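Tokens in:
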């Protein structure tokens, strides 16, 4: 393999051309500028008949010719050439590549609102990784406490987070790499961070003294509040799009608006809010909205109420959800609704991901997108539970989704699982990030530890989930009760398995920071697994419980130190506080 993502058509012949290596070639944006200005041995030519991102790359004994009709197409060609130079040491094979993307929009979304807020330099590194994989869209998911909103300065006055100047710098950094930085501000559900504050509490849907998570769309003050968030955020993005969220608005149809929803229909009330926000954004900012489609896909009779220019985001991260997408995609297509498909890295709720589910999810979404006319694929990376997982676990899913978004390949035939895509994605990540060490296959193995657990958990694993639940709580929703989860055998296997994989990783010549991040993940999985054993028989596990409490004390300083390397300080307390609560509960057993 000399190129990833795999191009649409590549013909390799006998012969080679040697391009002297230059240090400048290592910076993609700089290399692109150099090619445009003129590099000996590389000729860029205009080919008006090619599509926006389409390119031809031809190499023979006389040199390299890059053909494209736009700068964006030329950038994709330079991206391919840079990777080939890196992999061959500059001795390039005689080749003809004719290439263009399968999907017009290929995006990645990172949650920065529920714990982990990467620093600007960290985000730039992510953008470089995405650009090398030919992504052209990037979203930073925001709820609150992650951006300096000018309309509400006191809310972030006491801690560092992204500023308007940071966003403008990231926007420019993306544009230099032909990537669209799309603002992403939730505007209906998932508003807990704001609504728990006394001055905003009344804007929610709730009863009694509970803290709401969904805005009351009937209050004029709710609309004013959201408009203030937009006014603070949107002018700093050059994108023509904005993702307004609207997912999981669990208060819809309840509490203060129950009667109104009963009269109008929940779907109609949702559409009224969507259209109100869409109209405002279109008229004031000239932008088109995107929105998560989970609140409407069970109401196809209302699809005609979707704003004509809006983009529905069809998401689903589990095996069953992936299978249900077929009917949804057909319904969007038939109703004339613009839409994306949105798989997940599946790292949230598991510490390391669940790679067998992830590969199925990404592949299914991409194939449906191509077959039923989706405009794009947006890979989501969520931060539920304080975002304890490091970004290293997202890199292989991102690489795989990069392949599928660019070249989906032949439909799954039921036998191969497109293993070449998975292996080539791993090889790319090993080369790009890990100095060629064969780490990605071991990350894949560790991420499947949950297959040894006795129960399955929706988008989570037992070992990870139990870290966020009180020691006295054995039942998790309707999915499992620890008291019915067999015996220590299952969790002994999890612990032994993770230790074995980690021992193999320790042997690799890796950057110490990466190794520390992976080691911490392995230790947290082991902690969760051993905690499950304590919950199986708490009265007999007093000594083990206290030892786990001591283990938490050893892990927390490392967790916090690693956090600070790449992220703002604010947010580290979310998962740290969960671990401290488990420590105190474990030590209290038997007293």
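Residues out:
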């Amino acid at each position: 393999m000399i190129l990833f993502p795999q191009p649409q058509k590549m013909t390799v012949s006998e012969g080679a051309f040697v391009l002297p290596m230059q240090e400048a070639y290592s910076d993609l944006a700089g290399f692109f500028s150099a090619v445009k200005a003129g590099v000996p041995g590389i000729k860029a030519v205009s080919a008006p008949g090619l599509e926006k991102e389409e390119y031809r790359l031809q190499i023979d004994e006389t040199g390299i010719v890059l053909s494209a009709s736009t700068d964006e197409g030329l950038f994709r060609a330079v991206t391919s050439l840079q990777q080939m130079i890196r992999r061959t040491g500059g001795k390039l094979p005689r080749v003809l590549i004719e290439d263009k993307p399968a999907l017009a929009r290929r995006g990645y979304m990172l949650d920065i609102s529920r714990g982990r807020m990467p620093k600007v330099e960290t985000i730039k590194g992510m953008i470089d990784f995405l650009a090398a994989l030919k992504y052209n869209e990037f979203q930073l998911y925001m709820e609150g406490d992650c951006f300096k909103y000018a309309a509400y300065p006191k809310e972030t006055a006491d801690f560092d987070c992204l500023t308007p100047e940071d966003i403008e710098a990231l926007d420019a950094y993306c544009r230099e790499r032909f990537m669209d930085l799309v603002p992403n501000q939730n505007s209906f559900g998932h508003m807990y961070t704001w609504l728990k504050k006394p001055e905003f509490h009344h804007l929610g849907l709730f009863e009694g003294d509970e803290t709401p998570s969904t805005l009351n769309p009937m209050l004029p003050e709710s609309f004013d509040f959201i408009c203030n968030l937009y006014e603070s955020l949107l002018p700093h993005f050059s994108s023509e799009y904005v993702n307004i969220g609207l997912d999981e608005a669990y208060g819809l149809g309840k509490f203060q608006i129950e009667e109104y929803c009963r009269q109008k229909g929940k779907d109609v009330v949702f559409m009224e809010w969507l259209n109100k926000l869409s109209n405002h954004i279109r008229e004031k900012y000239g932008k088109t909205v995107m929105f998560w489609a989970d609140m409407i896909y069970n109401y196809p009779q209302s699809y005609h109420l979707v704003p004509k220019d809006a983009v529905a985001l069809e998401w689903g991260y589990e095996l069953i959800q992936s299978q249900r997408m077929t009917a949804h995609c057909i319904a969007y297509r038939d109703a004339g609704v613009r839409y994306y498909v949105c798989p997940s890295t599946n790292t949230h709720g598991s510490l390391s991901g669940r790679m067998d589910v992830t590969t199925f999810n990404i592949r299914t979404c991409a194939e449906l997108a191509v077959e039923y006319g989706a405009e794009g694929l947006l890979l989501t990376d969520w931060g539920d539970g304080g975002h304890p997982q490091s970004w290293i676990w997202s890199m292989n899913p991102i690489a795989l989704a990069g392949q599928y978004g660019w070249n989906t390949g032949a439909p799954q035939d039921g036998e191969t699982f497109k293993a070449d895509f998975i292996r080539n994605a791993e090889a790319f990540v090993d080369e790009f990030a890990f100095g060629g060490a064969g780490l990605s296959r071991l990350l894949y193995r560790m991420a499947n530890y949950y297959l040894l657990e006795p129960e399955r958990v929706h988008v989570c694993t037992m070992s990870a989930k139990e870290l966020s639940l009180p020691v006295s709580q054995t039942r998790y929703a309707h999915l499992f009760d620890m008291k019915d989860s067999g015996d220590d055998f299952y969790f002994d296997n999890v612990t032994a398995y993770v230790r074995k994989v980690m021992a193999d990783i320790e042997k690799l010549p890796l950057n110490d920071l990466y190794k520390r991040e992976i080691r911490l993940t392995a230790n947290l999985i082991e902690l969760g697994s051993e905690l499950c054993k304590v919950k199986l028989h708490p009265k007999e596990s007093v000594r083990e419980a206290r030892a786990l409490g001591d283990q938490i004390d050893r892990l927390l300083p490392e967790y916090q130190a690693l956090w600070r390397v790449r992220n703002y300080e604010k947010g580290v307390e979310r998962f740290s506080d969960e671990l401290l609560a488990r420590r105190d509960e474990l030590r209290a057993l038997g007293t």
